Each structure stands twice: as structure tokens, then as C-alpha cells.
Amino acid sequence: MKKYSHIFEISFEVISEEPDWLKCLRNEKDKVISALSKKVQTVFDTDDYNEEITGVETNEVSPKATITAEELAEEIATAVEMGLTDTIKQRKKLDEA
């Protein structure tokens, strides 16, 4: 079965004590999360999602792109191990020369 990745945009308001929106994101995360959660809940409770949420992009996801966290950790560990193995092999060659 095919899988798709959808990117959405939704606007919401945060009443803040910070004059800059980026500082608000950094320093008032609880307010931002709360406002976003309330907005999403309201949008779906009132069925206004067609007007309030914009679809930006949709892409088909390749099977390789959907790996579990365990698979990713395994791949990273293997890559690190291979890198160390290659380094050890290179050092042995230098030692033997």
C-alpha cells in the first residue's frame, strides 16, 4: 500500500509578553503549545478544517523512508562500527609499513 507525506499549515495566536515572535517560541514554549493544541481541537470540533488548515505539499513516501527508530539506531551503530573497523584496518596497514 502506498503512503504519502502531507505538509500542512495552520495559523494560531499566542498572547505573549515577548515583543518578538521568535523569542516567544524560545521562551514561552508552554504558551505556544497550549495555543496550538487549542486551535487544532477547535478546528476539528467545529469541522472548520477545510478553511483553517492549508495543504502545502504532498509526496509519496518511499518504503525506505519509513523506518522505525530501532532500525535507524541499528543503521547508525553499523555505520559507526564500519567506520571504526576501517580506521583500525588503516592503522594496522600503517603499523605494518
Describe the structure.
The protein is of the alpha+beta class. The protein has two domains: 66 residues, no CATH class; 31 residues. 58% of the residues lie in helices and 18% in strands. The longest helix is centred in the C-terminal third of the chain and has 28 residues. The mean pLDDT is 82.
The helicity comes to 55-70%
Strand content: 15-25%
Q: Write down the secondary-structure element order.
A: EHHHEH
Beta-strand segment tally: 2
Low-confidence stretches: none
Distance between the termini: 55 Å
Largest sheet: 2 strands, antiparallel
Bulk shape: flat
Overall mean pLDDT: 82
Number of domains: 2
Number of discrete helical segments? 4
Radius of gyration: 24 Å
The computed structural class is alpha+beta
Task: Going across the biggest sheet, name each strand in turn.
Answer: 1-2
Give structural attributes.
97 residues; alpha+beta; two-stranded antiparallel sheet; 4 helices; 2 strands; flat
